[in-house]
């Protein structure tokens, strides 16, 4: 029993409350600082811009604008607003769609010139046109085969782009199209869009949404295996990496992983995966570990936030080469890449040299390099001026 005077107890309680308040304020300030650059990269993209065209300027009338057709698989709920197309809610089934993305003639590699207001001006900003919801898997397969048929034999491959946290569908479409355009990828791009809430405050919702999406993502890969493609590569970003790895592990456990041997390269960019979870995932694959490339950066501010939320556990995308080599995957350190004009969380598509390098390697057959296990990129041009092959540090 505390026999101190009531006034003394009140003073102690007030001091404790003040201490808690200070800690919360410090934590809030930390989150704000960490995310200020990250939010600037994605928060401004209008969610309701799908199919919204400028009535005064037709997209196809703009000289030197580029059209990127994009096929979509998603387990988002169909939106009531057609300009949103698919919402942030978790749908009960897998849907397929397609859109065209118009990229303006003034576009700079590594930038995403989204419209500041609607309707967009196709001379200066990205445009999403011709949205079409497909009837089902059969139409999806037909659409992919139709795109494959327009490519030369060596380019009849598919790249599945999986977006990350805090991403609504419009943002995912623009990001995928920007990467495809800037990388010069020649195969057929397919966007898999899982139901991210598209909100900073929705981190836990998004993490659970990736787990809800595993069967739908696996069904998408199975549908792609039924197409005429010569190979399938996957590029995942941020929290989308958790979806890709968990789907692969579940398929491996069921004996369904890569049954037709079409899966080539899996690129995990800025992977927001608990390091201990990733280690277990690699162990679960065993000898069937896919051809995984980790793109990491120690200055990733968004992953610093994730680490704080996760109780201080390291995220794979922010670890060092030395910490990751033991997993038997290829690690590419982008820490020294200059990316001052954009978020450090999206170097794979925002740093011009990196996005072009990835595209070149995918077009050459799905490998970022020939033999190296791990290396860093202080100067991209110097590292690959000898034909893209560096000295071998260890065999895969």
Brief description of this entry?
The chain has 396 residues and is an alpha/beta fold. The protein has helices spanning 6-42, 137-148, 169-183, 203-212, 214-225, 240-253, 275-285, 301-309, 321-324, 347-350, 352-363, 380-384; strands at residues 66-78, 86-103, 127-133, 158-162, 188-193, 232-237, 263-269, 291-296, 330-333, 374-376.
Explain what this protein looks like in three dimensions.
The chain is 37% helix and 19% strand. It is of the alpha/beta class and 396 residues long. The protein has a single domain (40-367), classed as Alpha/Beta hydrolase fold, catalytic domain (Rossmann fold). A ten-stranded mixed sheet has the order 3-2-1-5-4-6-7-8-9-10. The protein starts with 5 loop residues before the first helix and ends in a 12-residue tail after the last helix.
Kindly estimate the percentage of residues that lie in beta strands according to DSSP: 15-25%
Q: Which secondary-structure class do the elements indicate?
A: alpha/beta
Number of H- or I-type helical stretches: 12
Instruction: Enter the CATH topology name.
Output: Rossmann fold
Structural domains: how many: 1
User: CATH superfamily name?
Assistant: Alpha/Beta hydrolase fold, catalytic domain
Mean pLDDT across every amino acid position = 82
Give the total of beta strands. Answer: 10
CATH architecture annotation: 3-Layer(aba) Sandwich
Q: Which residue ranges are poorly predicted, with pLDDT under 50 across at least 5 consecutive positions?
A: 1-42, 369-396
- Helix/strand order, N-terminal first: HEEEHEHEHHEHEHEHHEHHEH
Largest sheet: 10 strands, mixed
Q: Provide the spatial order of strands within the biggest beta sheet.
A: 3-2-1-5-4-6-7-8-9-10
CATH class: Alpha Beta
Taken from the alpha-carbon principal axes, the silhouette is globular
* Distance between the amino and carboxyl termini: 66 Å
Radius of gyration: 22 Å
Work out the helicity level. Answer: 25-40%
